[in-house]
Sequence to fold (459 residues):
Amino acid sequence: MRRVIFMQKLPFITAPAVGADGTAVKKLYLVAQSHTAEIEAQHAEWLKAQAFQSLPSRYAHLPDGALYVVDVEQAQNPLAYGALGTLLSAGDWTLVLIGLPEAARAAVILGFAMGAYRYHVRGRDPFTTRIITEESDAPALALVKATWLGRDLINIPANLLGPVELAEHAENALSARGASVDLVQGDALEAAYPCLAAVGAGSDRPARVVVGRWQKREGAPLISLVGKGVCFDTGGYDLKPPAGMLRMKKDMGGAALALAVACAVIDLGLDVTLEVRLGCVENSVSGHAMRPGDVLKTRSGKTVEVGNTDAEGRLVLCDLLTEASEKRPEWLLDMATLTGAARVALGPDLPALFANDDEMAQIICESGKEHADPLWRMPLWHGYDAWLDSRIADMGNVTAKPMAGAITAALYLQRFVPKGQKWCHIDTYAWNDASYPGRPEGGETLALRAIVGAIAKIC
Fold:
């Protein structure tokens, strides 16, 4: 089983007169906590029987549908509606907002879909619970599709999603949206991305680089996305312990996020020129694998001493950053599941943001707050730059010091970004360790809404 087909059919339907099961469409009343009195008066006996209390996130059945109470301060947070994906009974539902801003509708649609999402290798079963959408819901549905695509890619087991399959899925997703796509492989890949090629050399599954391009109009500002797509990371000769290897199918989460952002940007029709580069490789152990102490040449001409083969993500990204910088984009963003140090500092829910431009960082962080999809800015502290020095090469890929690992990884990447180029690096976990409303256990596209919202701001 080599190819996994995504079942992108979503739990939504355009307005029917009668539900899919032949019964009347049900109403989902989403009510601000301060506006529940009228409904409580109309359905007092029903609500009393359910011991209903008018508090945020409380759910109750009504004769013609259901009631869900919302904290107005959280009304535009999709996760506030994540529980609806499992609470609603089978049937087709229409949304009725009471006391909530109209913008909350998009959050409801996205939150419901985030909570309804499930992954299984055999595909998704048909949804029996659906929300009726309107033409104006297209932007929210674009984010739903991007979220599900990214989650699907991260969740696929590594034996079913190697570098070739990841590249093919990316090509299909981008081409279907009108983007032009080049798949770089073989001798061409080794010549153009020698450092990346060295990471993939240890695997029998060949590396691929995806280069996608899309343009809203001639002259639109160029946004360039770069994603780390390590489909499985053994650590190489610096082998990971079993516990550290267990979730390494998610080490392509940066590529999944970059692709999801690209798809959302295209579907939303944002006024940009877009380039996306995904480095699709596998970090394995073999007679062809890179070794600790090897010196690798990069696309930039700089040389790197491999101090640790498990710090392979930055070796994948550096060649892609060099190429992306050649076009001098308005913004250059790379995304990667890069360091455990970022998780020690910020935990699983907060991607670390490193940026060489304060305005860029501020726009992204503010977008994260607006879309309830936060990041946390970390410092590019150049006092640690010398820690990457090597006696025999231009730099090392790791430091000998057991501190500031996320910062030194970002400093390594910055060496491949020209001065004056606005750039940010996002170090993400790409995973939910447990299930929460709107965030089922498994792959996650953390920062997707924040990045898309930030790009929309600069169009």
